[in-house]
Design a protein that fits this description.
Elements lengths: L13 E4 L9 H28 L6 H30 L3 E3 H34 L4 H4 L2 H26 L9 E2 L6 H7 L5 H33 L5 H29 L8 H25 L2 H11 L17
Length: about 325
């Protein structure tokens, strides 16, 4: 992949990130902070994925999708955080042109896949709560495997389009990115060639890859909440609402931040706001997902206790997955 320049301008072979350039004395603290967040993300999601694979009682549709979410969250953090950590150690926040294109490709593919998977997970919970008698049929292996596979393919197809368009941009020697990693909007901001097609593709993707899955989540939860309101037990309703509120909080943060990041014109970007938004949906969200989606689940906690205690997990689990939000 050849570095892009413009006319007789020097070709760009390396980009400089400005996201943490104003932080001088706090580099060591930020390194430790991001390292801790990254390790928590890796350990938390790896534990969830491993438990689901080892315990046959967790081989239900709900946990099947959770295992895919854990994989995506590990990939999400691994695409951005290691490079940030290396740059903190070097005291020089740079990335080569080819690495930048690769980072952007994997970042957008994982983001698109996670958006689709969250919508699939919402549909799974709708089927479990609103269609319990048909749940086994609606979420059979012949259905859930293609749904998960399509989520991965969906994100990668979207990323191929944006990356292909980005490699055709000319930068005319501009090599300073107002961000902490390579992404489409900051690159469009410094490009000296026409970015109209890139911006239109970005807006289209925000609708089909960002907004559409979010609307599917909202519709699913409207039906879910309607069913929960029919529960006679106040304790049951409070428990269900509490669990749904935690899940919906993560969904709103993720979809809100990702649409805010990709659905604005290039002229409307602020370095501080973009850095905060990116940290929320690319670094903090993958760390919180295992806690909110799984560690609050009694079956997962029981499996973890039995694995740590050297016992065979799953002996006391119910045969059918518990319908939870």
């Amino acid at each position: 992949m050849e570095p892009r320049g413009g006319g007789n301008q020097t070709a760009v072979t390396e980009f400089f990130f400005l996201g943490f350039s104003g932080v001088r004395k706090g580099q060591a603290f930020l390194f430790l902070l991001f390292l801790v967040i990254y390790l928590i993300t890796l350990v938390g999601n790896s534990v969830i994925f491993t438990l689901i694979q080892l315990d046959s009682r967790l081989h239900s549709p709900m946990y099947y999708f959770l295992s895919h979410l854990s994989c995506l969250d590990i990939c999400y953090s691994s695409v951005t955080v290691p490079k940030i950590l290396v740059n903190f150690l070097r005291q020089r926040h740079t990335i080569s042109y080819n690495q930048c294109m690769a980072q952007m490709f994997f970042l957008m593919s994982i983001a698109g896949s996670e958006s689709a998977l969250l919508a699939v997970m919402a549909y799974d919970r709708y089927a479990a709560i609103c269609q319990p008698l048909r749940y086994a049929h609606l979420m059979s292996r012949r259905v859930r495997v293609p749904l998960a596979t399509t989520s991965w393919i969906w994100g990668h197809l979207d990323s191929v389009i944006h990356t292909a368009l980005a490699t055709n941009l000319a930068f005319c020697g501009a090599d300073q990115i107002d961000h902490i990693f390579c992404d489409v909007p900051p690159l469009l901001k410094i490009a000296c060639s026409d970015t109209y097609v890139n911006e239109m593709a970005l807006h289209m993707a925000s609708v089909f890859v960002g907004l559409s899955p979010f609307l599917l989540v909202v519709i699913s939860y409207i039906y879910i909440l309607s069913s929960i309101l029919q529960i006679r037990s106040n304790t049951g309703r409070r428990k269900a609402f509490s669990t749904c509120a935690a899940h919906l909080t993560v969904v709103i943060i993720y979809f809100g931040m990702i649409n805010l990041n990709y659905n604005r014109p290039s002229a409307g970007y602020s370095l501080e706001i973009d850095t905060l938004i990116s940290i929320l949906y690319c670094i903090i969200s993958p760390m919180l997902n295992p806690i909110i989606y799984s560690f609050r689940n009694k079956e997962v906690k029981e499996a973890l206790r039995k694995v740590l205690g050297g016992q065979k997990a799953g002996n006391n689990f119910p045969q059918q997955p518990e319908a939870k939000c």
